[in-house]
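ugh ok fine here u go
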Amino acid sequence: MGKLWQGRTSGKVSEIADDFNSSIKFDKRLYKEDITGSIAHAKMLSKCGIITEEDEKTLTAGLIAILDDINSGALKIDDSAEDIHTFIEETLTARVGAVGKKLHTARSRNDQVALDLRMHLKAESTVITDKIIALINAITDKAAEYKDAVCPGYTHLQRAQPITFGHHLLAYAFMLIRDLDRFNDCVKRMDVSPIGSCALAGTTYNTDRQFEAKELGFNAVSQNSIDGVSDRDFVAEFIFCCSLLQTHLSRLAEEIILWTSWEFGFVKLSDDFTTGSSIMPQKKNSDMAELVRGKTGRVYGDLMGIITVLKGLPLAYNKDMQEDKELVFDAADTVKMCLSVFAPMISTMTANRDNMKAAASKGFINATDLADYLVKKGETFRTAYKICGEIVGYCINSGKTLETLDLKEYKTFSELFENDLYSAIDIVNCVNKRISEGGTSVASVEKQIAEIRELLHKN
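structure:
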């Protein structure tokens, strides 16, 4: 194939330089967007009288035929082409003749690729948000199943206070709802058509950018032609959204890895989402969760890559921007893969209620409730905190727990203690007494579940 830019030069470069310069191997995934954009561009050119209606019909029919042939496999994309734009335009011209050369009137590859990428990432965002919703539903369903399953809550990886497993899971559901909002918000800034900006300065033709934008489903057009071709904020923001989403997936993956260990024994993953060892027959490894955790670093790398590419670029378009596509494609592919495996992994996960409750019964995680008991009897919180700390120390030294310490021993620390203290420090009661909004009581968890389902219904 020839080069769209040959003329000033012969269009011939060394084989190694040609391969280095080519982007067809990765930007060929934009063929649908490129053809769709070209059809809209041909319609705009015809509407504005820049080409004839007959030319527009010829171009449109030719482009639709190319799209159908690529989709069916009848036409293979030529990896020796410089990029997807060159391949489609050269193929079109070969099929419809000289009229194919009119298609590029009033546009440049600079605004063309920016358009294709925006269209592609809008579509990718929809795929990703659908997968986020599927994962939120899986987590919420699992939280409903274990809304009353008592387990220890942790700070600093130390047992802290009793909570329900459902409450813990819902923390991730709310993280993912924010991710959902971020992607939806990202699309708003992505939903701007750059086509018509041309190379950087616009065009001398009397075009209708608004018409072309509406044909392609955009809500607005870029207001500055230089910014239109050089803006890659939407790429960086998209990858940032992917990165923060992966942060949340990685945190949950880390907890699943801990929970499935013999040391915790809180949950069990389906065999469908675990692997074994080639030498140790007893092993059942949470490899899918580990891979999600590992792939998070990969997406972070994509984010660092794009902002580093952009940080020193003068306006307007520079070839450096060709690096945006591999980075953003990789981020999107990785996120979609992680979400696809995560939802069914959560749906098929089972929790061991007995192990979780047994763990919650150790570590004096009801000590705060003991302090609250004294406060409700009239003691100040700071004094109650000190008294209960001394009681915990006494229990550790004597090999007892708060539940097994008798009332006489309690009274050596404070005369405010009565028999009702044992009800106050019962683990299940400790959970259900947390009635503050957003707390861990079963009633609160049920309310949170209802709120999440309502939010998802609106999406």
